[in-house]
UniProtKB/TrEMBL annotation, chain A:
Protein name: (4Fe-4S)-binding protein
TM regions (residue ranges): none
Originating species: anaerobic digester metagenome
Signal peptide: none
Pfam families, per the entry: CbiA, Fer4
Ranges of residues in domain 4Fe-4S ferredoxin-type: 63-92, 99-128
InterPro entries found in the cross-reference section: 4Fe4S_Fe-S-bd (IPR017896), 4Fe4S_Fe_S_CS (IPR017900), CobQ/CobB/MinD/ParA_Nub-bd_dom (IPR002586), P-loop_NTPase (IPR027417)
Length: 302, 280
């Protein structure tokens, strides 16, 4: 192994199952951990943890092309070679032509092929700022978080960066655990957040969508050989689907970390900017505690 | 044809509920409807619309293929590739297809014919009918990182209809942009909680950047604080509908049933939303 720090990643497949509320409670229960918010395009953990930013950096995950209007001869090579329909013939006039080409920054994939083939050296291809990342202090320990710029690419790279910085911070401060809030789905940011992690906790809900998405996420964790456990949140909304999830999880070789009852206190805690376990001791807080205990004891034994 | 995208910053706010109920209710009111599930990482629309799938086809993307013995080791392919998807070792090209974005740069710059365009399957499309709704969904293969090419092909597979409903993935990054960029109107579904509001603000910034007209549906509208409603008023954003928290709806959802079938009153809620959306 070689690494002293352990990474626990909380993901869900389906969005809105309660990932972030569980992560915030884990942060409160862990005593000492580094938190990493890897849901970089819709980060919410900061709303509960009230981070005081001590360091902020800009993030450049790739490059972006733009036409230098005065050099464009309207030959159209850029539009021919672009595979992403990012080049349009509607740029402003210059001294030579009435219309120039223009690159839509949203559609541009940052491949640079247009700039390579442009014979007039009329395409600038330089680093793009895709977002920002931060190191903060919170009442439960340090936190690394980020904000991907609106409509930006490279979320996977930003996730990897946040994870790496969180691990560095943990090492620097002698903290043994990094708790990572992941994003929904199974695509690039999720893959970037789980590869090589010590444990994944999948938070699901007792709905047909929750079950469907859990099975896809289970395939994903298996694909990347990451150990995974399941937490069924709001299980009592449909006990029948909840037990079906338990059954299916068992078949997939996933351990059930626990079930958390539906409790309106989760929303109330959020409104009060607290984690549920800080907000109240009874109700679902006890359930979350026992999920935390089974996750942390399994992690300690590995 | 009117293209309506259903999106949200935060996941789990009720995008699929709104999209599938709109599709069902509109089709029952004699409107020709096509439903596209562009949440290709976790497509759930089929669980509610229960379509008969009539056609399946793979989603292929372009990647470089290597012809053995042709490489001279010039390294141009490695130089043009921005994604680290090609490496050159002793007159041998190595390709890492998972990193490739399909820009075609490497095989265009290759002078020796060692690299050629070839195809790789990253997912599939499924097409069919759900009652009167034309149904298309994209499914990204497990382990694949890039969903936008699948989303693009879902949209290309759309048939002609009066109302096209695009069920978008959550978030604000490239898969969302790919789903909503050419929509006529975007419905942002949110819930009135601090997380919901935070992500709604990001979603509003996104649709404003794309210069798309939009409105908001507040789901479980009586559960949070009033801040989401205040935000919409201050920003002059139209609230298209407020759907109160209803255990019957939540239970129907958990079983994969449409709210408009499970609870009588919801047919009318979605019918008036359809009317509003068709008006422009």
């Amino acid at each position: 192994m070689g690494k002293k720090q352990q990474e626990l990643v909380i993901i869900s497949g389906k969005g809105g199952t309660g990932k972030t509320s569980i992560v915030a409670s884990f942060a409160a229960l862990a005593g000492k951990c580094v938190m990493a918010d890897c849901d970089v395009d819709a980060a919410d953990l900061h709303l509960v943890l009230d981070p005081q930013v001590i360091r902020s950096e800009s993030f450049s995950g790739g490059k972006r092309a733009s036409v230098i209007t005065e050099r464009c001869t309207a030959c159209g090579t850029c539009a021919e070679v672009c595979r992403f329909d990012a080049v349009t013939f509607d740029g402003p006039p210059n001294s030579r032509v009435e219309k120039t080409f223009r690159i839509d920054p949203v559609a541009c994939e940052g491949c640079g092929v247009c700039s390579w083939f442009c014979e007039d050296d009329a395409i600038d291809f330089g680093p793009a700022v895709n977002g920002e990342w931060f190191v903060s202090e919170t009442r439960h320990g340090p936190m690394v978080h980020a904000r991907l710029g609106i409509a930006e690419e490279n979320s996977g790279k930003l996730v990897s960066l946040v994870r790496k910085e969180a691990m560095n911070l943990a090492e620097e401060r002698g903290i043994g655990l990094v708790v990572i809030d992941g994003s929904p789905g199974i695509g690039c940011p999720v893959i970037a957040s789980i590869t090589g992690a010590d444990m994944v906790l999948v938070v699901t809900e007792p709905t047909v969508s929750g079950l469907h998405d859990l099975l896809r996420v289970a395939d994903l964790t298996r694909h990347f050989a990451t150990p995974a456990m399941v937490c069924i949140n709001k299980w009592d909304l449909n006990p029948q689907v909840a037990s079906e999830i338990e059954e299916q999880a068992c078949k997939q070789g996933l351990r059930i970390a626990g079930k958390v009852r539906y409790d309106r206190a989760v929303t109330k805690a959020q409104i009060n900017r607290l984690s549920v376990v800080e907000y109240q001791d009874n109700g679902c807080s006890g359930d979350i505690r026992s999920v935390w205990e089974s996750v942390s004891s399994l992690m300690q034994s590995t | 044809m009117r293209k309506i995208a259903i999106a949200s910053g935060k996941g789990g706010t009720g995008k699929t509920t709104v999209a599938t109920n709109l599709a069902a209710v509109a089709s029952r009111n004699s409107i020709r409807v096509a439903y596209l599930d562009c949440d290709v990482e976790e497509p759930n629309g089929a669980l509610f619309l229960r379509p008969q799938i009539e056609e399946k086809r793979p989603v292929n993307v372009s990647v470089p293929g290597v012809l053995e013995g042709m490489c001279t080791g010039c390294g141009l392919c490695r130089e043009i590739c921005q994604y680290g998807a090609v490496a050159v070792v002793n007159k041998n090209v190595l390709v890492f297809p998972g990193l490739c974005h399909g820009c075609a740069g490497c095989w265009m710059v290759c002078q020796t014919g060692a690299l050629v365009e070839s195809m790789r399957t990253i997912g599939r499309l499924e097409m069919g009918r759900a009652d009167k709704v034309d149904f298309v969904q994209g499914i990204l293969n497990i382990g694949e990182a890039m969903s936008p090419p699948v989303i693009r092909q879902v949209k290309e597979a759309a048939v002609d209809a009066d109302l096209l409903i695009i069920d978008s993935p959550p978030g604000t990054s490239c898969p969302v942009i790919e789903s909503i960029r050419d929509a006529d109107y975007v419905v942002l579904v949110t819930e009135p909680t601090p997380f919901g509001l935070n992500d709604l603000v990001l979603a509003v910034e996104t649709v404003r950047m794309l210069a798309l007209p939009f409105g908001v549906v507040i789901n479980r509208s009586d559960t949070g604080d009033g801040q989401t409603q205040d935000y919409c008023r201050k920003q002059d954003i139209e609230i298209l509908a407020e759907i109160p928290d209803d255990r019957r709806v939540a239970e129907a959802y958990s079983r994969g049933e449409l709210a408009c079938d499970a609870v009588q009153d919801y047919s009318a809620v979605f019918a008036s939303l359809v009317e509003r959306l068709l008006k422009g």
